[in-house]
UniProtKB/TrEMBL annotation:
<protein>
    <submittedName>
        <fullName>D-TA family PLP-dependent enzyme</fullName>
    </submittedName>
</protein>
<dbReference type="GO" id="GO:0008721">
    <property type="term" value="F:D-serine ammonia-lyase activity"/>
</dbReference>
<comment type="similarity">
    <text>Belongs to the DSD1 family.</text>
</comment>
<dbReference type="InterPro" id="IPR042208">
    <property type="entry name" value="D-ser_dehydrat-like_sf"/>
</dbReference>
<feature type="domain" description="D-serine dehydratase-like">
    <location>
        <begin position="258"/>
        <end position="348"/>
    </location>
</feature>
<dbReference type="Pfam" id="PF01168">
    <property type="entry name" value="Ala_racemase_N"/>
</dbReference>
<dbReference type="GO" id="GO:0036088">
    <property type="term" value="P:D-serine catabolic process"/>
</dbReference>
<dbReference type="InterPro" id="IPR029066">
    <property type="entry name" value="PLP-binding_barrel"/>
</dbReference>
<dbReference type="InterPro" id="IPR051466">
    <property type="entry name" value="D-amino_acid_metab_enzyme"/>
</dbReference>
<dbReference type="InterPro" id="IPR001608">
    <property type="entry name" value="Ala_racemase_N"/>
</dbReference>
<keyword id="KW-0456">Lyase</keyword>
<dbReference type="Pfam" id="PF14031">
    <property type="entry name" value="D-ser_dehydrat"/>
</dbReference>
<dbReference type="InterPro" id="IPR026956">
    <property type="entry name" value="D-ser_dehydrat-like_dom"/>
</dbReference>
């Protein structure tokens, strides 16, 4: 009996390779939508997959709002005729001009972006005026990640300043809490409520002033918490492919692994070790060596060395592996792993079924 991940015609596939299982992607999307009262409250991030095919499946699931981190990702979404795209980045320098170019090139898509600095807002306003465009913006809030954004208590002033800029339309608030990764859901929930409380207080201030802000909050780890807030748009990303790290840390979320990396044994340097063609350029290497990949059909293999083109693993005495054997690897961190591949190979009913180009891994598409 075949395991779900096995590929009948794997001999035709060179390695290392990224493979994706569309039926599992569709399952994860259906599971996501089942956790909210309205799919209009979903704004998934495309940083994990960066592909047109995954966007199309997401649209087919009834999701019309998306989030992205790069101009290339935003352009990919525009080319897919996505109705609503949030660039979760403050555009400065050439990025601001490129965003304005997207507004002109894809008028059917409503593009918005983040702002946390008044000078940057003024520069964007000037560019929008010159282009005769109106740019929707979200005020970016720092809720503890300390990466971007303003403290919520200090954000009211910027919100009002941006409201006065004639070519910006302030839509609402953005609060990403990616630092909340506690494996205990109760602890993660309590910390999420604590981080969100100042955001809720700011939103209440704005409502008292006659403004009804849209709130975009969270990622995959805090999705279960924010999904219960009727006033929040949720923006998970990793859920769509899932990975070993999230599967271990967030067991309460039953998403399925939907993308793997395939590798072959290319050498047996000693009686107990194997060398695989899964180097730094084929699997995200930022995690500790023991948390980069788990082989579904060889879970006992233990990584002991990693370089640009090779992964050395300890197999133990009398292991039985041979040069040429195929290993199915579950990445610990799927998002940067996907960006290492120009395309993913789709697997349907255990067979190769075309390619999903990782189109938005490029920094520039046309704009």
């Amino acid at each position: 009996m075949q395991e779900w991940y096995q590929i009948a015609d794997v001999a035709a596939l060179d390695t290392p390779a990224l493979v994706v299982y569309p039926a599992r992607v569709a399952h994860n999307l259906a599971l996501l939508t089942s956790h909210v009262d309205d799919p209009g409250r979903l704004r998934p991030h495309i940083k994990t997959h960066k592909s047109r095919e995954a966007v199309q499946l997401t649209l087919a699931a009834g999701i019309t709002k998306f989030k992205c981190a790069t101009i290339a990702e935003a352009e990919l979404l525009g080319s897919c005729q996505v109705p609503d795209v949030l660039l979760a980045y403050q555009p400065v320098g050439p990025k601001a001009r490129r965003l304005l170019a997207l507004l002109q090139q894809y008028p059917r898509t409503r593009f918005s972006c983040l702002i946390d600095d008044y000078e940057a807002a003024c520069q964007l306003n000037e560019l929008a005026q010159a282009a005769q465009q109106q740019v929707p913006v979200f005020i970016d809030l720092n809720v503890g990640m300390n990466r971007t954004g303003l403290a919520p208590a200090a954000a009211l002033g910027l919100y009002q300043q941006c409201q006065a800029l004639p070519h910006l339309t302030v839509v609402g608030l953005h609060a990403y809490d990616g630092h909340l990764r506690d494996e205990d859901l109760a602890v993660r929930t309590a910390r999420c409520h604590q981080a969100f409380a100042p955001v809720a207080a700011l939103a209440e201030q704005l409502r008292a002033l006659g403004v009804a802000p849209v709130i975009v909050a969270g990622g995959t780890p805090t999705f279960p918490v924010h999904a219960a807030r009727p006033e929040v748009e949720c923006s998970p990303g990793t859920f769509i492919y899932w990975d070993g790290g999230y599967g271990q840390a967030f067991a309460e979320q039953p998403f399925l692994p939907a993308a793997l990396v395939l590798s072959r044994v290319v050498s047996q340097p000693t009686a107990t070790t194997l060398c695989l063609d899964l180097g730094h350029k084929a699997i995200a290497p930022e995690s500790p060596l023991d948390k980069r990949v788990t082989f579904l059909n060889a879970p006992e293999l233990r990584p002991i060395g990693h370089s640009e083109e090779h992964l050395v693993v300890e197999a133990g005495p009398g292991h039985g592996y041979r040069v040429g054997d195929v290993l199915y690897g579950l990445p610990h961190h799927i998002c940067p792993t996907v960006a290492l591949y120009a395309q993913a190979v789709a697997i349907e009913n255990h067979h190769l079924a075309g390619e999903w180009p990782t189109a938005a891994r490029d920094r520039v598409l046309t704009v």
